Structure formats: C-alpha cells, structure tokens
Amino acid sequence: MKASKVICIAIFLFWQTIQPLNAQDYGNPDNAAPLKPSKEQEACNGIFASYTLEQRERELPFVKNVSAQGWAFKSSAVVLNAGATELEAWQLFIGFQYDELLVSVDGAVVIDGDSFPIRVGKNGTHLAGFPQANLKTAIDTANDMSQMSAKIHIKGTQFGGQKNAKPMPKTFKIVNDGFKCPAPKMTKRGSTITVCCVKDPKFKTKALKTKFFPRRKGDLTFTYDVLQAYKGSYLAQVTIENHHPLGRLDRWNLTWEWMRNEFIYNMRGAFTHEKDPSECLYGPQGRYYQDMDFSQVLNCQKKPIISDMPPTLKDDDKVGKLPYCCRNGSILPAIMSANESKSIFQLNVYKLPPDMNRTAINPPQNWKISGLVNPNFKCGQPIRVDSSEFPDPSGIDMVTAAVASWQVTCNMTRPKPNQAKCCVSYSAYYAQSVIPCNTCACGCEDTDSCNPNAKAMLLPPEALLVPFVNRSAKAAAWAKMRKLPIPHPRPCGDNCGVSVNWHITGNTKTGWSARITLFNWGNLAYQDWFAAVQIKKAFVGYQNVYSFNGTKLPNLNNTIFMKGLPGLNYLVAEVNGTRPSYPRVPGKQQSVISFSKTHTPKINIEGGDGFPTKFIFNGEECALPTRFPGSGAHHSRAADFLPVLLVTLLTTLLITDRWFH
Q: Which residues form the signal peptide (predicted)?
C-alpha cells in the first residue's frame, strides 16, 4: 500500500515538472502544424492577394426575372506581404462584373466612406486596411502571418447575373503607388482568384522626409490630432480647413463612425445633435464603466452628428474659447477670409477593451460633411501623418507636438441630376419668354399631382418674382396667350432654395451686358454670400460687375468671382407679402455685368455664347437650363422691352423697400 502511494506521488511530481516545459514551447502551443503556403503564395515575391467566394444563395423576394433576382453571397479576401519591404496603408480594388452591392465589410473600410449597403457593381470599390493598415514582412516578424497579412470578410447581394453567375471580380489588384499587377488568375475550382503584385522598377520612389505618410492635398481636409492620451481616454482636436477657392460650408454637419465602441464624454467648440445616455447604459460601454454617471456623457451614438457652436458661445468657459470656432458652421474660401477658412473643435473620447492603453488609438472612420447650399464633398479614410505641431501658448519660442495625428482628405463632386441645391433661369431682351429652372432641378419628393419628367413651361418675366406655387396660373395664361402647349399634369417645380436669373440686357457691335439676379426662397439668410460664373468664350472680354465685387480668376477655369459689397453681403430670407393675400417675397441681390467684344468680335450671344457654362453659388454648382431664349415669332422690340422693364422696376422697388425697412 505504501509503495503504491509513493508511486502515485512520484508520478504527480513528475507531471508538475514537465508542465512548465510544455508551456515554454515556442513552436505551436496548440500542437497544430503551421499552415503551408499555397503554390501561388510561394511563387509571389511581392504582394499576394486572393478573393474566394464562400457562399451564394437565392434570397427573398423570389422573382421570375432572373436578372432582377437577388443572390446573397459571402466571400473573403486576403492580402499578404510576401515581399521584402513593409507595405504601408494597403489599398485593394475589387471590380465586380454584375450589379453587386456590399452589405458589410470586416477587416477593411470602404475608402469612399459611403454607408452600407453600397452599390459597387458598376464602378467597383476600393478597400483600405483597418484596423491593420500596415503589413510587415516575414523577415521583420519571423514569419508571423498575423502581422504580414490581413483577411477581409465580405457580405453582399448580387443582381443582374444569370442563374449560375458567380459574383467574382473581373478586376482585382493592389492600388498602392509603385506596384504593378497582372490580370488575376482563376483557380481550377472557379471560386478563387489570385494576383501577385510586384514593385514597378520604373516607379521613382520619393524619399519621405516624414515618419508617416506626407499630408495630402484636397479641397477640404480634416486633421484629427490627439493632444492628450490616457489609459482609457484621450483628448482630440479636429481641424477643418477649406483649400478650394470656390469651396464653402454653411451650418456644416459632420458625421463619422466609431469602429471600436468609443463614445464622446464632452466637447468644446461644437455639439452633437443628440444626447441619449441609454445607448451607453444598455451597451458595452455601460457594462464596462459600471460606476460612470452616463447622464453627464454627451453622446453615445456610433454615428454622431456634430455641428459648430453659435457665435454667442464663443467666449463661454465651458464650451467655447477656442480659435476658429463658434461661427454657426460657416467656413469661407481663403480668398474671402483666411481666418474664416478653417474651424476647430475638441472632444474627450472614452475607449473600451482591448484598447485600454495610451497608444491604442483608432480614429473614427467614414467621415462625411454637408452644408446648406454648399458643394458635396467625398472624403477618404483617415491616414496616419506626422504629428501636428502647435506654438507654445506661453509665447516662448517652442512648439508642442500632438501625441498622434491623422488626416482625412475630401474633394468636391458635381451634383447628380436632380440633386442640385440651386438653379439658373435664362431670359433676354430679344425673347418674350423666360426659360425657367429645370423641372425637379433640386429634386422632387411629391409627384402625385405633377409630372417630374415634363419640360418646364415657359414663363412671363414677372413670374420670376413669385414662388413656384403662385406661378401656375401665370404660366397657364402665358401659354394660352402665346399658343403654347399646356401639359397635363403640369410639370413639377424646381424645388430649389436659391435660384439665379441670367438676363441678356444688351448686345452691340462693341460689347454686351447681362443682369444677374439672386433669389433666396428659403427661411435662412446667407451672410457673406458669393457667386462665380464661367463663360468660356466671353471671359477675355469681362469688364466689370457693378453692384457686386467682381474678380477674375484666370487660373481657375477662367472664372469670374463675385461677392457682395460692404453692407450688401446679406442675401436675406424669404418673407411674407405686404398683405396676407400677396405671395411671399424672396430675398434678392442684383447687378449688371458687362463684356467687351474687342477680343471676341464673332461671339454669338443669341446662340448661347452669352450664357454661363457653369454658375456657382456658395460653392454649389447650380443646375443650368438645357435651352436658350429664342426670338420665336416676329414681334417688336418694344413689346419685349416692356415686361423686362417692369421686372427691373419691381425688383428695384422690392430691394429698396427691404433695405429701408
């Protein structure tokens, strides 16, 4: 009996001795054989990428039309650094061949920043690595695949293909500078494609003088600077800078997406549109910060909407006292005011595990910003740049660097059809009718009682002074008098908050002139407004704009830049008529612009050379008519001149009445 006890004790002690030895095994703690690289990976001396279709199934609703039937699919992509140099900020392009849309992407972010679901079938999509943006080499990591590669999981829906069509990309490549990618190869099974991208020997690599990526140029940029970092939180400063001479934002709204359950504890210089502590209380934030009073937390949304503070809070000790803040979201071009071309705010951000250390900082993704009647900006994802430097607040000759900095670059895009925010109408002294703004130029929500596809009806000149709802009777009476067709149902309105009338007032052998009238049909006034016009053939003959402040910008597509003179820089809002039965009266600004024919003697004003090829208000490109005023049937110049004179006199009286009252 004693012998058996001794043997048991000896076995137990021996087992305890070898246990630590097993824990010291540096090979594979799970005793699993390491994954063997594929033949394609072994043959690649560069960046290897693969795309695998994992699942495809028919989804509801079931329809007979094969091309209209939706198919849910799951796929994965792998990006592997099989070369000898680190790949920083990897980017992958996937060019689908049918009408696919992405529902979710895990392991990367969509560079264009659109919200899911995203249509990618026609133009493809660019993906950037997140949270693993850089891929190290096997040399630097001792073949650690977790640092060398990134795996992306994709879910989506496919339309437009035949019953057995697979949502396989037609184009698949790495798009980082300095790499060449051949056409992807399909494996024997037909569900995986691979590509090996190698360095282009002809590409001249620029010597980087910075530790991280150099800052990029764009029409609008954001800088996300971390000023203070703690274990579970950090203080960040966001700087918005307008670099485009025609870019602008009014009452801007900024939104982004937190990717790792962060939340905003408080802000200075800006505010969020919603404060709802329940999103934190019943989420992972509440489970981790069990002793926190979330009623004091500013915002717990995954996608907060952020706006600038009003000027009244500029010197507030709690939410103000920041340079370039608190202007009601107004960001002007630098040619108008360098000090007002940027905006700044700060936010205190709390983090969650596993990011509970001072260096684990992940900036928000999918940045979007919009204004009132302002251009649309398409933004990329944040890229790490060298830390921003700030002058020491004490005034001594010293700079203080941020803990870390990221940059987001945005560029202006042209508005899509029927999605503009302003429009232009054309008229001329030689034509009786006004060419109005296009039907649904700024969109149409309610089309039950109107035709969104009908061409806008010609108008008498005085109809430009009343809102669209009061033009129907005038348009019908004018069409009847001019023996023009009256469509049924009538065309929908333009639905634009701002409209512009371009009227040719004169045309002689030596020069010509036009009158520009700005109309504000909205409830908000536009302070420090500006307008810009491009007229390709007439630019060289520009002389003056008399009631505005005009400047030639020859380096910007021959643009004429205009803004209000001192004291006339407000485009006031629409107001009620002087009597209850009178139509509402828009805010107006008006000026004559003149041109010489010295360098353009053959310019054809009536043929369209005297009308804008592009008109911009507060940075937004306005919708232009697709036709020009014509003389039509024979009529006297005096008959034409009378309604034009009437409109001019009425507009002058209205502006004068508004100015003195």
A: 1-23
